[in-house]
Design goal:
This protein is of the alpha+beta class. It has two domains: about 40 residues; about 140 residues, Jelly Rolls. The chain has two helices and eleven strands. A five-stranded antiparallel sheet has the order 1-11-3-9-8, with no helix packed on it. Helix 1 runs antiparallel to helix 2.
Length: about 200
């Protein structure tokens, strides 16, 4: 149980990006969108803005897919009394950091079915469990050469996913059971040995 638990937990840990999805919703075609969610106190959160592009509109450069897009973006996260916990403004452009393009692998077999550009805002924390308001204004693409298939907003926290936590707990429990069995076996062995010496005496 210990070996299986730790092996399973490590396998999930190595594939984990450090983010656990809390909630998500679709964004309007263009313009402002708001979302409210109830946080846990002292937990770090990150806002993710994602735009999925049609691969047919991508340009192949250096054996990878490139997207030409440029959208004005304004994001803010405020608590119930109006304090700004996180904010950013600029261009949602797959060719400018901190925007990141996923799915443009060089090998055809390794490429993801979608070309997704993601922009992260945060991390931030809330001192209370009062609802937080996330405001996003993602404008129209000023270039428009790559068709947009989907726009979405996601909220992540840094909590350990329950399956990973349970796997490590199972591994720890199995290890404790194994150690307890070793101790019981050693105690029984020395007791039998002592008993044999007494009988011989």
């Amino acid at each position: 149980m210990g070996i299986v638990g730790f092996f399973s937990g490590c396998n999930m840990l190595f594939g984990w990006n450090g983010r656990h999805a809390v909630t998500a919703q679709a964004l309007t075609a263009e313009g402002p969108t708001t979302m409210t969610f109830v946080p846990d106190a002292s937990v770090r959160y990150t806002v993710s803005i994602q735009v999925v592009f049609d691969r047919e509109g991508a340009e192949r450069k250096d054996a990878t897919d490139h997207i030409e897009a440029r959208m004005p973006l304004v994001v803010s996260v405020k608590d119930g009394v109006g304090n700004v916990l996180a904010q950013t403004s600029g261009w949602f452009d797959p060719n400018e950091p901190p925007n990141v393009l996923y799915g443009s692998g060089a090998k055809e077999s390794a490429r993801m079915p979608e070309l997704t550009v993601e922009r992260l805002v945060g991390p931030f924390m809330s001192a209370s469990v009062a609802p937080l308001k996330v405001s996003i204004d993602l404008g129209a693409d000023t270039i428009g050469t790559a068709p947009v298939k989907d726009r979405r907003l996601a909220i992540y926290d840094d909590k350990t996913p329950p399956p990973m936590r349970n796997a490590f707990l199972g591994g720890a429990f199995g290890t404790l059971v194994f150690l307890a069995g070793v101790v019981v076996s050693l105690v029984g062995f020395f007791r039998r040995k002592k008993k044999k010496r007494l009988l011989r005496a």
